[in-house]
Write a structure and sequence with these properties.
- By secondary structure, the chain is mainly alpha-helical.
- Helices cover 78% and strands 0% of the residues.
- It has one domain.
- 42% of the residues are buried.
């Protein structure tokens, strides 16, 4: 049973954590999207605020708080859910290899007739399902609240924004998984992925204020998810391909090392 379904068993073992993160993401999405009607009523004041500090507003993604797309793009999709999903994905990716290795559980899995390639790939697939569920949660919540909040955003564009947010989490979650696969150490997996996530977010945010730092945006998954403005334009195939390619490359690098190194016992 274990050798046939490493993927399913890992998801079942993680079900409480998955449910908890889904509830948290749903609560944050519902809470901040519910502020939109109040924000719409203060549209003139917010527009005046943006005109007084245009650079700060642009760097923080507040350049348009007078439309539902601009408000959700700067709050729910520009800050809160990407950070929440990134934290969740890093924790999940860390536990997938490094966490279980330090606890001795991975040794038990590998004692069965199952290849390391299979273990890592199925744990990566579980991570994909996890972030997909979190992205689906955002989409379902916004779709359900849309009539009451008068969001007037097409379901396909809400889905595009939720997909981009989930892919940000997948990038950093896979980074944690890969670092864990290479080192076998939880602290390196969490620390490495968390530091690069902070650098990625700040690089995409504050590089807008300095032309010399603009190159940092191109190294950040946040840039590829947010810059196409999916709430207005839908999915950008080229930028989405980058967000899909990053986890695949990271998983491949982790797999190459995990297949050859000694596992901690």
């Amino acid at each position: 049973m274990l050798t046939r379904d490493i993927f399913g068993k890992f998801l079942i073992d993680s079900r409480r954590g998955i449910l908890g993160w889904m509830i948290g993401v749903a609560a944050v999405t519902a809470l901040y999207s519910s502020f939109w009607p109040s924000m719409r009523e203060t549209g003139d004041a917010m527009a005046a605020f943006v005109e007084q500090m245009p650079q700060l507003a642009e760097s923080m993604g507040w350049s348009d708080l007078t439309s539902a797309e601009g408000y959700l793009g700067s709050t729910v999709f520009g800050l809160l859910t990407p950070i929440l999903i990134t934290i969740a994905a890093i924790a999940f990716g860390t536990r997938a290899i490094a966490g279980e290795e330090e606890e001795g559980a991975l040794e038990l899995v590998l004692s069965h007739p199952v290849g390391r390639y299979r273990v890592l790939l199925q744990r990566f697939a579980a991570l994909v399902v996890f972030v997909a569920l979190l992205g689906l949660t955002i989409w379902v919540v916004l779709l359900a609240l849309s009539p009451a909040l008068d969001l007037d955003i097409a379901a396909g564009r809400l889905a595009a924004a939720a997909l981009g947010t989930a892919l940000i989490g997948l990038c950093y979650g896979t980074l944690a998984l890969a670092v864990g696969a290479v080192t076998g150490r939880r602290v390196y997996a969490i620390g490495g992925a968390a530091v690069l996530a902070v650098v990625g977010y700040l690089g995409n945010t504050f590089a807008l204020q300095q032309d010399e730092l603009e190159w940092m945006r191109f190294l950040s998954p946040f840039y590829y998810a947010l810059d196409p403005e999916p709430l207005r334009n839908g999915i950008d195939p080229a930028f989405t391909a980058v967000l899909v390619g990053i986890p695949l490359v990271l998983a491949g690098l982790g797999l190459a090392r995990f297949a050859r190194r000694d596992v901690l016992v």
